[in-house]
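Two records follow; treat each independently.
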Amino acid sequence: MTNAKTALLVLTTTLVAATAAAPFDSEKIEALRFLGAYGFLKDDGGSLSSDNATSLRRALSLFQEYYQLSGNSALDAVMLHLMRKPRCGLADIPDRVYRPIARKWPKTRLTWNFQVASKEISRMVEAAFALWAANSSLNFAHDPLRPDILISYRTGAHTYANRRNVGICPATFDGPGGALAHAFFPSGATDFTSEIHIDNSEPWHVYLNKNPSNTHHLLQTLTHEIGHALGLQHSMRNDSIMFPYIPDIKNQFPVKLSIEDILAIQNLYGSHDDGNPTARSLHLRTVQLDTLQSHTVILDT
């Protein structure tokens, strides 16, 4: 009888310990997948293994540094909460071994198309491109037949929208939440078509006004992804349109570019004022979304 009670006690203790450890193990695996997907953890011969504590601590330290989080390189609730928030699907730290630091289009007049778009969505795409055009030398025009930048709704595992791009897109959408969209950087070739994929399973708001709660403003995400399609990487500043995570609902509208965004796009393509060598002011141009007309605010430099 004593031996039976002892065996039962050992079994119960083991089950309790396993149950208590399960949530942490699942969260640890979740964090490893996230850190690997977004460039904080490289798979250098086994670094993605959950047993490699040193690699995990370094990756968590990089994540904390990137997003200015306090901590001691240990996984905590604050980090998990941020990892689970809706965001862009592109890596925060790109693999610079295989990808140049910056690529740009060899021209400043670019065309675009959003596949089978409604009137509201087309107007929103125009507004997103207008924000970048107003603050650089770039010009954009709608061309449904031969666009330089092709935008489409995709879902789950998906193909490219452009028929010339054969095969399956390497990035898979995971349903509501998580990655909202992803884009492809310009290759530098004149005949290249960049694509922007928007997750069709998300609750998108497609009108040029403030979006209700429990929705994502499509204009915010489109402007961000167009930045990638023009050659911009993610920014660590949370006031930048190129910050990986979408803002809280109260800050998703109006959509605007930060000074960092403007300097970044002008470093690639120049500004409207490049032909005037006497200009000594930084022109911050925004777009009135109701009319798609631009106005200028001059900041002293």
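The next record belongs to a different protein.
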Amino acid sequence: MAVHTSLPGRHRRPGERATRPHVHRSSLIVLAVCAVLYGLYAEVVVRHGDGPFTGGQAVLAVVSMVVFGALWYGYLLVRRALPREARAAAFGLLFGGSIGFLYGLSGNSVLTVAVVSLILAVSSGLAAFYVFYTHE
């Protein structure tokens, strides 16, 4: 007869706080690559995929890279200290806000951008909560 074996979890216990923020090198590499791709995609959205590359678009790409990377790095620093509900909400805000910014650059109305961002933030936050809840 098969028996289920309980193994100790890989994560912290409820109520236990991380002693110091720690971000793995691989996470930083993924963050840097995604930030560069995010900034370049923001530039392409503004340019509408054709036309000359201007200085204003280069500034937008660099600022988008830096802000997106800084927000993601901030999330990586505080995620272990947050309870799973707040961690999922922070992830949802980061995802919904970043995709909403890109969608807003495409020239859609503010109401449409707000609704799409809210839907994406809530759905990704719920998905993150499910993952955090089932893996802790």
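Discussion point: DSSP finds four helices and no strands in the chain. How would you locate this feature using only the token line?
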